[in-house]
Amino acid sequence: MTDEFLPYGRHSIDQADIDAVVDVLKxxxxxxxPKIAEFETAFAAYIGAKEAVVCSNGTAALHLAAMxxxxxxxxxxxxxSITFLATANxxxxxxxxxxxxxxxxxxxxxxxESFKRAVARAIRKPAAVLPVHMNGQSGEMDLIAEFxxxxxxxxxxxxxxxxxxxxxxxxxxxxxxxxxxGTFSLHPVKSIAMGEGGVITTSDPAAAQRMxxxxxxxxEKTPEDWQNPEHGxxxxxxxxxxxxxxxxxxxxxxxxxxxxxxxxSQLGKLxxxxxxxxxxxxxxxxxxxxxxxLLKSIDRTPQCLSAWxxxxxxxxxxxxxxxxxxxxxxLAAANIGTQVHYVPVSSQPYYTExxxxxxxxxxxAYYDRALSLPIYPAxxxxxxxxxxxxxRQALAC
Length: 397
Fold this sequence. Notes:
alpha/beta
C-alpha cells in the first residue's frame, strides 16, 4: 500500500467545524451578520488585544493596517527581505515605498541591527516598520519596538505565521506590547483556517473603527459627519434605514459569517493545535539529529515559544552534491511534499526594477538552504520518521 501523501501544510477540520458552518447556512445571515463581531471579540480575547478587526484575507489585513497607520505616498516603510510578497506589497498599495532589511541567515528574522541599517540606508526617516514573525517565532521585538518608538516609527507586525506563539516574557504576538497593529492570516495552512481570512489587532479603538469602515466601502449609516443630513431623515426625525454616505474611498475587504463561524469553531481548538505542532517539532528535532553538517534546523530565538507554522531546515546542497529541486523531486516521489519559504522579496523583478539590485547576504544565505518539511496537527511520530528516512536517503547520509 502506498504511503499517504504528506503535504507541507494542511488544515484540520472536524464535525464541529462543519456543524458551525451549516448552522449559518441554514439559519443566519451569510455575511454582515452577528458572527463577525462574535469572532472579533473572541479573537481579541485570545490574543490579549483591545480590538480585533476581521477581514477577507491576510493581505487585506496588512493593507488595512498600513492605511490605518497612515502610510501614504512619499512615506517609507522597512520590510524584511524574507517574507511573503504581501508584506511589501501592502506598503506599495498605500503609495509608500519599501526599504528592505536583511535578515539573520540562521532563522530568517530581522534583527535590531538589520533594522537600524535599513533606517540608515533609507532616503528619509521611515514612517513604519513591518517585522515578520517568520515560521512562527519572534526575534528581537522588544528592541525593535523600543528603537521604533524612540524614532516615531509605527510598528505593524506580520503575525501571519505566529498565531498561537507565546512570548517568554508574557503575552502573545499582536497583543499590542510591541506593535501598533498586528496582522494575521487564517489561510488553510495557518494555525487555524477560515478558508481565507485575515485579522488586525490594535489597542486603538478609533483605528479599529476606521479599519471597519475601510473594509466595507466606508459606508456610514449614522448621522455623525453627514454632509447631507436632510436626505437621511424621515418626517418624524428618525434616520431613514436606506440612507448612507461615503466620506472617503475604501474597499470591499469584508469577511463573511460563514468564514467567521468556521473561525470561531477553529479558535476553540487552537491551543490543542499549537501543542501538537510543538510536539511535531520536537519529533523532528529528535529524528533529524545525526545528519552531520548537511542538514540543520533553523536557529531558535530565546524570546518566544514558536507556533511552528512551518518546520524549515537548512541544507548544504553544495556539500550534498544535489540541487534543491532534485531533493524535492525525490521526496515527492516518496509522497512527501515540501516547499520553500521564501524567495527574497527584494529580488523580485518588480522590486529590482524599482529599487535596483539589493545586497542582502543574510536573506540570500537563508533562502539558498531553506526547505520546509510537512507539519500539521494530524501528523504522528511515524510520519516524521518517514520524512527523516526519506531525507536521509535523498541526502545519502
